[in-house]
């Protein structure tokens, strides 16, 4: 999978993809992430990418032309399955969307800033609009990083048995059960006996019960 990200703040996206699982995905050549500075696609004197909104009102709007220029330059090289606009008024990201997007070939992500982008970009280019939750970030970059992480770890071959996504919270609409590691006892706090029993059928049942209890208590909306 190839992911291209168009942004006015490329610096915000320098760190997140060069660590841990996403780094391995790229080393294994299962994922390629490229960021593009929108300013490089502005034909204006001062590399301007935003302007006052028609109709008046506070706040700048990202201009149409640099974005069209960036999208069409990239489209000349790459065939995209989705053009995603990260925006607080998009569809809220969940595990099902991440699963679906992880099966796509190439994605183009567009990070919003200021009051947003000229509506004509949304009408004529964007195929999917995604939010990462009901709160406002200063730009779409951190949301794009979250989205790339959620998708990238699901690309077939990225995770091994140890990091398998199959038992993640949300993967079957259940939260994950509690986990323990050494030591078996600390300050009198003991690991549940069942986990030390060696009876794998019993352990699986216990984990499923715990996952169900935890989901009922914390996220009954998932059931
Ligand atoms: Cl995608 N962008 C911004 N600016 N704020 C957000 C968001 C996106 N998702 C949640 N809040």
TrEMBL record:
Location in or out of the cell: Cytoplasm
Top-rank taxon: Bacteria
Main location: cytoplasm
Entry keywords, A to Z: Cytoplasm, Methyltransferase, S-adenosyl-L-methionine, Transferase, tRNA processing
GO biological process: tRNA N1-guanine methylation
The enzyme's E.C. designation: 2.1.1.228
Record note on quaternary structure: Homodimer.
Family as reported in the entry's similarity comment: Belongs to the RNA methyltransferase TrmD family.
Biological role stated in the UniProt entry: Specifically methylates guanosine-37 in various tRNAs.
Protein name according to UniProt: tRNA (guanine-N(1)-)-methyltransferase
Species annotation: Chitinophaga pinensis (strain ATCC 43595 / DSM 2588 / LMG 13176 / NBRC 15968 / NCIMB 11800 / UQM 2034)
Phylogenetic lineage: Bacteria, Pseudomonadati, Bacteroidota, Chitinophagia, Chitinophagales
Gene transcribed to yield this protein: trmD
């Amino acid at each position: 999978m190839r992911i291209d990200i168009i942004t006015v703040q490329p610096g915000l996206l320098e760190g997140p993809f060069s660590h841990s699982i996403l780094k391995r995905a790229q080393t294994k050549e299962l994922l390629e992430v490229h960021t593009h500075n929108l300013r490089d696609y502005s034909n204006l004197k001062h590399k301007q990418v935003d302007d006052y909104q028609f109709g008046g009102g506070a706040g700048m709007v990202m201009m149409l032309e640099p974005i069209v220029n960036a999208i069409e330059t990239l489209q000349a090289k790459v065939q995209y399955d989705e053009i995603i606009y990260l925006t607080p008024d998009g569809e809220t990201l969940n595990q099902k969307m991440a699963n679906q997007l992880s099966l796509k070939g190439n994605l183009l992500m567009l990070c919003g800033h200021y009051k947003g982008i000229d509506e004509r970009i949304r009408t004529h280019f964007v195929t999917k609009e995604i939010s990462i939750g009901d709160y406002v970030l200063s730009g779409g970059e951190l949301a794009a990083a979250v989205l790339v992480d959620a998708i990238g770890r699901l690309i077939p071959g990225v995770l091994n048995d140890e990091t398998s996504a199959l038992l993640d919270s949300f993967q079957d609409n259940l939260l994950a059960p509690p986990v323990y590691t050494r030591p078996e006892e600390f300050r009198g706090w003991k690991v549940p006996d069942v986990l030390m029993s060696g009876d794998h059928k019993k352990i699986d049942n216990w984990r499923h019960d715990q996952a169900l209890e935890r989901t009922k208590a914390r996220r009954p909306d998932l059931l």
